[in-house]
Amino acid sequence: MAEYETILVETRGRVGWITLNRPEALNALNTQVMREIVAAASAFDADTAIGAIVVTGSERAFAAGADIKEMESQTGLDMVMGDHFGGWADFAAVRTPVIAAVSGYALGGGCELAMMCDIILAADSAKFGQPEINLGVIPGMGGSQRLIRAVGYYKAAELILTGRMMDAAEAERAGLVSRVVPAAELLDEAGTVADTIASKSLPSLYAAKAALDAAMETPLAEGLRFERHVFASLFDTADQKEGMAAFREKRSPDFQNR
Ligand code: CAA
């Protein structure tokens, strides 16, 4: 496995774990962190022995945002020519389901990283926000687009325009968070959810994620057409035959990921 300096990477069963590890900067997302997360997630994605990925941080911070100290002296031209944040698109494009296990601060780029994942499990200590307005800028890793889709215009606008944080309970009510769990149980719960997902057939997981993505990106009629095609294509997999035979025979399916 590749050597990483800003993240910890391990495999538990069929689940790949990525733990942000810059405690001195509350896991602020600098360019190196972005490259390492993308590399680790892409490697897991290319490995059919992996059926789910968990991204987590520390108890105190999932990630407190993009690295302000790295960005401070940049010009607009530097940002454009360096395609600052552009690499995150490769993380969002990972086909394997990704769970964000969020404890503590998920601010700015941290909240945006969580929103690039498919499921957000939050510790009751979690705090979410897009505080970029306090720095004289705006969200730059998808916050102005994904937050609206998650919580609706008015909640997103209030958060982005005031920069205030919301706690885990409010984030769950708003629909940003899949589920809130006691902080001490966060990683176990993330592991349980990830194991559950990883036990399914990979082709159907890829298809489900592609259909969910389509719902975010396309008009309804186009999304429905896409869903029907993808649904039909799964009937050419051995796992569809196995899944339906197992139901009829009242046993657990034995998926082969093909
Ligand atoms: N970038 C760089 N360093 C950061 C950081 C960030 N986003 N967030 C925290 N740190 C550093 C602090 O500078 C501090 O380092 P030093 O000890 O060397 O000074 C260390 O992490 C600990 O932070 P604090 O002492 O500030 O801890 P705290 O408990 O007092 O406060 C906090 C915690 C409220 C999260 C506060 O650190 C904070 O407000 N951080 C910045 C949050 C923010 O503005 N995020 C948005 C960044 S811009 C962005 O993300 C753009 C985008 O859309 C992609």
UniProtKB/TrEMBL annotation:
Origin: domain of life: Bacteria
Keyword Lyase part of the UniProt annotation: yes
Recorded catalytic activity of this chain's protein: a (3S)-3-hydroxyacyl-CoA = a (2E)-enoyl-CoA + H2O; a 4-saturated-(3S)-3-hydroxyacyl-CoA = a (3E)-enoyl-CoA + H2O
A Pfam family of this chain: ECH_1
Swiss-Prot/TrEMBL keywords: Lyase
Family classification: Belongs to the enoyl-CoA hydratase/isomerase family.
Name of protein: Enoyl-CoA hydratase
Keyword Lyase recorded: yes
